[in-house]
Specification:
With 315 residues, the protein is of the alpha+beta class. The protein has two domains: 10-65; 95-287, no CATH class. It has helices at 10-33, 36-52, 56-65, 134-142, 145-150, 153-156, 164-167, 301-314, and strands spanning 95-98, 173-178, 181-186, 192-196, 213-219, 222-228, 248-254, 260-268, 277-278, 282-287. Helix 1 runs antiparallel to helix 2 (36-52) and helix 1 (10-33) crosses helix 3. The longest helix is centred in the first third of the chain and has 24 residues, at 10-33. Mean pLDDT is 81; it is low at 1-67.
Length: 315
């Protein structure tokens, strides 16, 4: 696909980077020490784990280009100082936020500590998979490969929307927060969203927007954002998980320290799900960079995919 920017998919990074680095850790230590202990430890921790997970290529790459144990150049960001606050006493969510634990970009880079990549610990805070209604699951399973591809915002050039912007977004988000207003500037496709935090109610007949229509309230230091009225062309996740006109999304924002922003999502859609789905608390880390231009343009593959889809429908 031809777009203004081409970036490494997060899913690939989550698999390749930890394995390559873990492999490098074992080999580098075994090689450097040149002893039986080092060799055994390097083999057990690097080669065996890499082999067990089908990463022969990662083993070779990690051995040649990885970073030795204890010398990672990109490490997990510490919590930092106390939570900054607005004049009204509420936490201030202002900042550029990275969807990882490093406070900087990690995609396609070497020397990244595996602990700096994920947003949450899948063992400590596992995410239960969504439970779809039978008819919704059948609809998802019936989608062709072309339809699944066309559902991706990186292909169709439409905004990811809410809640996908917090669940499937490998790019940074810049938040500007002041009493009464929370502005979110998304690097991906340069979308933006304004959330009024003055307590105004939800509209009775909301216009369907990509980011929905929102109302907010505070629960202690947690900002709760409840949204309804979504454009049905968006998807919750890029695996066919669609939504209906009854979708309600609840976002919970907390900032436990200077460098951490925690976002937790609840998806309630009675036409699609058997029960509401709740995400793990996902950690975003504070950066000091900029939001760059990123527009989805000149996507010549979109027309070809539409032709393929029409051919599939005729079968």
């Amino acid at each position: 696909m031809k777009t203004l920017h081409t970036r490494v998919a997060v899913s690939a990074l989550l698999i390749a980077a930890p394995l390559a680095l873990c492999t490098a850790q074992g080999f580098a230590q075994g090689t450097a020490q040149g002893t039986a202990q080092g060799t055994a430890q390097g083999t057990a921790q690097g080669s065996a784990q890499g082999t067990a997970q089908g990463t022969a290529q990662g083993t070779a790459q990690g051995s040649a280009q990885g970073t030795a144990q204890g010398s990672y150049t990109i490490k997990p960001m510490p919590p930092g100082g106390p939570t900054p606050r607005l004049a009204d006493g509420h936490p201030d969510f202002t900042g550029q936020w990275f969807p990882n634990g490093a406070g900087q970009g990690v995609s396609g880079r070497y020397g990244v500590d595996p602990a700096a990549i994920p947003q949450f610990d899948r063992k400590a805070t596992p995410e239960e998979p969504p439970q779809f209604r039978p008819e919704a699951l059948a609809k998802i399973k019936s989608m062709t490969a072309t339809e699944l591809e066309l559902s991706k915002s990186s292909v169709n050039c439409m905004p990811r929307g809410v809640p996908a912007i917090w669940l499937q977004n490998p790019y940074t988000t810049f938040i500007v927060h002041k009493p009464g207003l929370l502005a979110q500037l998304y690097e991906v496709l340069n979308n933006w969203r304004l959330i009024h935090t003055d307590g105004r109610p939800l509209p009775k007949n909301p216009e369907p927007f990509f980011h929905g229509n929102s109302t907010t309230h505070w629960e202690g230091d947690t900002l709760v954002v409840e949204s309804i009225g979504f454009d049905e062309r968006t998807y919750i996740m890029p695996n066919g998980w669609y939504h209906s006109d009854e979708l309600k999304v609840t976002e919970r924002y907390t900032r436990p320290s200077m460098n951490y922003l925690i976002v937790e999502i609840t998806v309630d859609d009675p036409k699609v799900l058997l029960k509401p789905w709740k995400s793990a608390p996902r950690r975003w880390t504070l950066g000091n960079g900029e939001i760059y231009e990123f527009y989805c343009t000149n996507n010549l593959e979109l027309e070809e995919l539409e032709k393929l889809r029409q051919q599939e429908l005729k079968k």
